[in-house]
């Protein structure tokens, strides 16, 4: 069974996916190279979660948010902050404030 922080990360990933896809499509239209960590980012997050690496999944998701500069809803921020707090990842939590 998934822990509550894994559920928060999965829900946030699903909610952010369309925004990141739009960002990637925009970069492709400008013929800008897309880093693998962004192009395959959701697969990476999912793999981390499948292997019990919630902390790495959360860090990668935050990396994707910062690199793409997408707008994140307050609900998603709250979910990610809660996940970080549940895993005692204070430095990660502070990145979401």
Taken as a percent bin, the fraction of beta residues is under 5%
Cα-atom radius of gyration: 13 Å
Into how many domains do the coordinates divide?
A: 1
Question: What is the chain-wise order of helices and strands?
Answer: HHHHHH
The main β sheet shows up as:
none
Ends apart, CA distance between termini = 29 Å
Q: Quick one: overall form?
A: globular
How many E strands? 0
Structure classification:
mainly alpha
- In DSSP terms, counting alpha (H) and pi (I) runs of 4 or more, how many helices? 6
Poorly predicted segments? none
Helical residue percent band: over 70%
Mean pLDDT: 85
Any descriptors?
mainly alpha, 76% helix, 97 residues, globular
What does this protein structure show overall?
- The protein has 97 residues and is mostly helical.
- The protein has helices spanning 4-29, 36-39, 41-50, 54-68, 74-86, 90-95.
- It is globular, with a radius of gyration of 13 Å.
- The protein has 6 helices and no strands.
- It has one domain.
- Helices cover 76% and strands 0% of the residues.
- The mean pLDDT is 85.
């Amino acid at each position: 069974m998934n822990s509550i922080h894994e559920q928060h990360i999965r829900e946030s990933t699903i909610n952010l996916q369309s925004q990141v896809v739009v960002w990637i499509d925009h970069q492709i239209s400008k013929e800008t190279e897309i880093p693998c960590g962004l192009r395959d980012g959701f697969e990476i997050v999912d793999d981390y979660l499948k292997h019990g690496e919630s902390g790495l999944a959360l860090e990668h998701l935050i990396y994707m948010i910062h690199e793409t500069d997408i707008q994140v809803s307050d609900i998603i921020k709250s979910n990610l902050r809660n996940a970080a707090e549940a895993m005692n990842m204070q430095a990660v939590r502070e990145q979401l404030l």
